[in-house]
């Protein structure tokens, strides 16, 4: 499996992977699957922010993707990012999520970021909770019943992982 930067040719697969999670799953609280033009705009927004969007490719097929976004836009949050990971439903538990998250963490650390947040949709999302836990994230809180999807209330679980020196030192002045 190869982890590479997402490009235009990956958008159709990215859109299909995400559409499944929107329409069938609870990992995202989005309720209508975005089309390829919307996904193109999202990729562009991530890139314009100077952040990465990775895809896991095996046998020429996109098996999953991960991108990093600003946790919040206010300047005080400038050293904190949030990850988003989605894996093709037919490729779960085959290492794509682990490889994508490892690449994202490594990238963020080399760029001087200090904290990474995972906002896990649905407290029953054992796969994502386990993935993040194994990557060094800890649960910092659960927001109970904040989402309504597929006729039921859903929680979100906030997880956090320090990057590099975390909060042990102040960042270099920029």
From TrEMBL:
GO MF entries: acyltransferase activity, transferring groups other than amino-acyl groups
Provenance organism: Kosakonia oryziphila
PANTHER family: ACYLTRANSFERASE FABY-RELATED, N-ACETYLTRANSFERASE
Keywords annotated in UniProt: Transferase
PROSITE patterns hit by this protein: GNAT (PS51186)
A Pfam family reported for this protein in Swiss-Prot or TrEMBL: Acetyltransf_1
Record flagged with keyword Transmembrane: no
Keyword Glycoprotein recorded: no
Domain N-acetyltransferase: 1-164
UniProt cross-references to SUPFAM superfamilies, sorted A to Z: Acyl-CoA N-acyltransferases (Nat)
Domain of life: Bacteria
Protein's recorded name: Phosphinothricin acetyltransferase
UniProt-listed InterPro entries: Acyl_CoA_acyltransferase (IPR016181), GNAT_dom (IPR000182)
């Amino acid at each position: 499996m190869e982890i590479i930067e997402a490009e235009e040719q990956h958008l159709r697969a990215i859109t299909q992977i995400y559409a499944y999670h929107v329409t069938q799953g609870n990992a995202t609280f989005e309720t209508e699957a975005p089309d390829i033009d919307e996904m193109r705009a999202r990729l562009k927004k991530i890139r314009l922010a100077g952040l990465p969007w990775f895809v896991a490719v095996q046998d020429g097929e996109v098996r999953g993707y991960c991108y990093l976004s600003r946790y919040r836009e206010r300047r005080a949050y400038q050293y904190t990012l949030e990850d988003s990971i989605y894996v093709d439903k037919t490729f779960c538990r085959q290492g794509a999520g682990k490889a994508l998250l490892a690449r994202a963490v490594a990238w963020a650390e080399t760029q001087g970021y200090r904290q990474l947040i995972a906002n896990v949709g649905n407290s029953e999302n054992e796969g994502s909770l386990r993935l993040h836990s194994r990557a060094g994230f800890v649960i910092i809180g659960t927001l109970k019943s904040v989402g309504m999807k597929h006729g039921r209330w859903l929680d979100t679980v906030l997880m956090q992982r320090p990057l590099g020196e975390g909060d042990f030192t102040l960042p270099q002045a920029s």
